[in-house]
Each structure stands twice: as structure tokens, then as C-alpha cells.
Write a structure and sequence with these properties.
41% of the residues lie in helices and 38% in strands. It has 110 residues and is an alpha+beta fold.
């Protein structure tokens, strides 16, 4: 749980740095998967590369990058033997664009 909070804090901080005048929109989604966290990470990384995520960085806190001015993070968590949970969050200043990017990423992952 602490890793999720840290990832969200890092993610949010990057978005707020874009401008103090208006807080960014944040859309997220999560789902339990019948695959390992490692398989989830591979699938998520491939999905993000497929859509053209820029500046993709992968570390112990998740997969981060930018897509058309929107910040993206995907996190896979182990939930037991062959089970995981995937979390997708997208932040940006245009509500409709943020929702669209989130939905596009989810469609690629599931």
C-alpha cells in the first residue's frame, strides 16, 4: 500500500508542476487479473509502447510516461499465486482527453 501512495504522490507532483493555476484531472482504473505481476508488467509495458507512450520509465513503483501531454502510470501488484492487480492512472488538464487516454490504455491491457 505504501508503494501505491508513493507512486501516486510522485505522479501527482509531476502533474502539479505543469502549472499552479488549475489542478489536473485524474482518472484511474484497476482490475484483478488471473496472471502473475511479472506477466502483468510485460503486457502493460507492451501496451504502452503500442500506443506510443513517450519517455517511458519502468521502476519498482510502476511504468511512467507521457502521452500527448498527459502523465500516465501503470502499476502491477502481486496478489497471490498467479494473481495480480493492475492499476492505471492518467492525469492532465483536459478532462475529456484524460478519460480518452485512460480508456485507450485499459483497452490495450485487457
Amino acid at each position: 500500500m505504501k508503494k501505491w501512495i508513493l507512486a501516486l504522490a510522485l505522479f501527482s507532483g509531476a502533474c502539479f508542476a505543469q502549472g499552479p493555476e488549475k489542478a489536473p484531472e485524474l482518472w484511474s482504473w484497476f482490475k484483478d487479473l488471473d496472471k502473475s505481476a511479472a506477466a502483468c508488467e510485460i503486457q502493460s509495458s507492451f501496451a504502452l509502447q503500442t500506443i506510443g507512450l513517450e519517455n517511458q520509465v519502468e521502476n519498482e513503483y510502476g511504468i511512467y510516461g507521457t502521452y500527448k501531454g498527459n502523465r500516465v502510470v501503470v502499476k502491477c501488484l502481486a496478489m497471490g499465486e498467479g494473481k495480480s492487480k493492475v492499476w492505471v492512472a492518467v492525469a492532465g488538464h483536459d478532462r475529456d482527453a484524460v478519460e480518452l487516454v485512460r480508456n485507450m490504455i485499459v483497452k490495450e491491457i485487457i
